[in-house]
Write a structure and sequence with these properties.
about 190 residues, mainly alpha, 9 helices, about 80% helix, about 0% strand, GDT1 family protein, transmembrane, transmembrane helix
Length: about 190
């Protein structure tokens, strides 16, 4: 349960103001059809995070505990720093054409999530907790907690969130996870 709750919370916080949340806002503004967009976000996230979780599980089995402690500790600290750098959407809401709302959302979200903070966090969290299903379920739920309101409420919500504060809290959590991993307080 700990893996699920930590994964949900950290990804929900990390996703606030993230480029994929900005993409969700763009998709909602472009199509104004929230439910196919929400379904597309869910489908893309579950596949993306399942693959990231598989990488985390492989990494945990391929690397010894001492090396893993350093990799995870430094990765979480790097994530803490990365959380403090604001994201911007790379394109001006460009999405694949000819796939419909759902298909375009799946493709755009899957690609936007490649190498993103939440995907890297999923790899690290699975490697740390050794709980593939709990972490993937948690990170997926965290993505939905952050992105569904963005799709449903759009700009009205986006401009009222204290994004810097939310990112600072997420950075603090990542830093704490890094220090805990480096200290060896948690058996990996």
């Amino acid at each position: 349960m700990e893996a699920f709750l930590v994964s949900t919370g950290i990804v929900a916080l990390a996703e606030i103001g993230d480029k994929t949340q900005l993409l969700a806002l763009c998709l909602a503004a472009r199509w104004r059809r929230p439910w196919p967009i929400v379904a597309g976000i869910f489908a893309a996230t579950i596949v993306n995070h399942a693959l990231a979780g598989a990488v985390g599980a492989w990494l945990a089995s391929a690397v010894g505990p001492d090396a893993m402690r350093w990799i995870l500790g430094l990765s979480f600290i790097a994530m803490a720093v990365w959380m403090l750098i604001p994201d911007k959407i790379d394109e001006s809401c460009e999405t694949p054409r000819g796939f419909g709302v759902f298909g375009a959302t799946v493709i755009a979200f899957f690609l936007a999530e490649m190498g993103d903070k939440t995907q890297i966090a999923t790899v690290a969290l699975v490697a740390q907790f050794h709980a593939y299903a709990s972490v993937v379920a948690g990170t997926t739920l965290g993505m939905m907690i952050a992105n569904v309101p963005a799709v449903l409420l759009g700009d009205r919500l986006a401009h009222r969130l204290p994004v810097r504060l939310v990112h600072a809290v997420a950075a603090l959590i990542f830093a704490c996870l890094g220090v805990i991993a480096l200290s060896g307080a948690v058996k990996l």
